[in-house]
């Protein structure tokens, strides 16, 4: 299998989870019908879901098996269309604005706020699920709720953590991974001197590029907007973050300014870099291939270092499930989502994902996957600790547009590559952000 797109990647744990799904998906027709009883599918209903291409085969296997169980119980056929991470956003926006295409979408971050009037009100469904399963995590709920109305259902946080080669860190003179940004820069500098550099995406990477850029900004106390939504990106804190990013970039493998979400995975697994940030899928990609056994054994994971702000601040990839208002079968769509969030299905999906997808509801926090492997530990609290990309202002059309336009990612890329000075990059980001925050 080539690792050149958002392809299915699974390690030994992912494969084992997929095999184990056989018994877990012996769900009776009566159980499935009960789980979906809150919403009665329309007669003759069929559904089409647009989702992101999975990174872990066990996650897809679990989702598809749950979907088949729903079809067996209700007779509602569900077609699942997969698109690359970068392509989900524009295709969903086209479907929303044209009023045709998929009935549902797994979208990114605050994308639903770009077209809230094109989505079905799912307050009844989301409220019932929250009451049933211990409540939603606040950060995830914020990505799905506009005022008192749910315009989407929170799906998951895809945890992001530092992945590194333990032997290379020690060869660079570090026995323990640094916990602060100064120590982190020193480590990356030493890794470059040893010929085993780090690398983080400065390209338009939906997940990894945004996660890295927001950590750079927030760790130094910067923010795109204040609590009232006033653009505050042009600040001394932001300039400090840019200057730190320039120093880090100097230690990277060449070419990271063009990296998309797949490139850091590819570089790490090819042995070109010894340190990057990713979901747990990177580890399982290595365990899957016998030729990468040495790399897999050497991988360690840890949360991002703490910067001058003095506290951990991380953006995790988040996904929600939305129903387009153009669907002819809104009740069937609600019944499908309701069924997928019942304990039998949700726990199997979380386990199948092998710590890649962090639960949206608090009742599922004790899923055994989180303690089954030390590699999973930095990802276990992603839903609880995530900071929304619109911080410190409210989520909405402005935050969604700013994110979709890669304003923050581009600011750092322009500065580290020398296209603009730090002051010019901040001013340009300020100008662009103000087009959305008006």
UniProtKB/TrEMBL annotation:
This is Extracellular solute-binding protein. Pfam families: SBP_bac_8. Belongs to the bacterial solute-binding protein 1 family. Keywords: Periplasm, Signal, Transport. GO terms for cellular component: periplasmic space. It comes from Aurantimonas aggregata. InterPro entries: Bact_solute-bd_prot1 (IPR050490), SBP (IPR006059), TAT_signal (IPR006311). It is found in: Periplasm.
């Amino acid at each position: 299998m080539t690792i050149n797109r958002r392809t299915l990647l699974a390690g030994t744990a992912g494969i084992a989870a997929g095999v184990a799904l056989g018994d877990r998906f012996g769900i009776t027709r009566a159980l499935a019908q009960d789980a979906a009883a809150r919403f009665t599918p329309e007669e003759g209903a069929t559904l089409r879901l647009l989702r992101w291409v999975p990174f872990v085969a066990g996650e897809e296997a679990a989702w598809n098996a749950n979907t088949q169980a729903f079809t067996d119980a209700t007779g509602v056929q569900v077609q699942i269309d997969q698109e690359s991470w970068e392509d989900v956003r524009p295709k969903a926006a086209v479907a929303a604005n044209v009023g045709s295409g998929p009935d549902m979408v797994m979208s990114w971050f605050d994308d639903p706020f770009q077209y809230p009037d094109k989505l079905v009100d799912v307050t009844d469904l989301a409220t019932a699920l929250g009451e049933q399963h211990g409540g939603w995590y606040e950060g995830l709920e914020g990505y799905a709720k506009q005022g008192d109305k749910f315009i989407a259902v929170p799906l998951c946080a895809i945890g992001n953590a530092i992945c590194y080669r333990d032997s290379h860190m020690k060869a660079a003179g570090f026995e323990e991974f640094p916990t602060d940004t100064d120590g982190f820069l020193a480590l990356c500098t030493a890794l470059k001197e040893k010929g085993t550099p780090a690398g983080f995406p400065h390209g338009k990477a939906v997940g990894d590029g945004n996660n890295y850029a927001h950590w750079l900004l927030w760790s130094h106390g910067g923010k795109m907007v204040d609590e009232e939504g006033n653009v505050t990106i042009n600040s001394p804190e932001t300039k400090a973050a840019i200057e730190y990013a320039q120093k880090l970039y100097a230690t990277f493998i060449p070419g990271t300014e063009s990296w998309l979400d797949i490139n850091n995975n590819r570089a790490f697994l090819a042995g070109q870099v010894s340190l990057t940030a990713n979901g747990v899928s990177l580890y399982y990609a290595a365990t899957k291939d016998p030729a990468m056994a040495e790399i897999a054994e050497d991988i360690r994971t840890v949360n991002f270092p703490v910067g001058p702000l003095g506290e951990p601040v991380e953006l995790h990839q988040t996904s929600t499930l939305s129903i387009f208002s153009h669907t002819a079968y809104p009740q069937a769509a609600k019944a499908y989502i309701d069924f997928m969030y019942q304990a039998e299905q949700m726990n199997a999906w979380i386990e199948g994902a092998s710590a890649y997808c962090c639960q949206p509801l608090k009742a599922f926090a004790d899923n055994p996957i989180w303690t089954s492997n030390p590699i999973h530990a930095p990802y276990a609290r992603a839903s609880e600790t995530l900071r929304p990309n619109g911080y410190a202002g409210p989520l909405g059309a402005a935050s969604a547009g700013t994110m979709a336009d890669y304003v923050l990612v581009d600011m750092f890329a322009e500065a580290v590559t020398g296209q603009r000075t730090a002051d010019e990059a901040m001013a340009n980001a300020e100008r662009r952000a103000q087009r959305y925050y008006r």
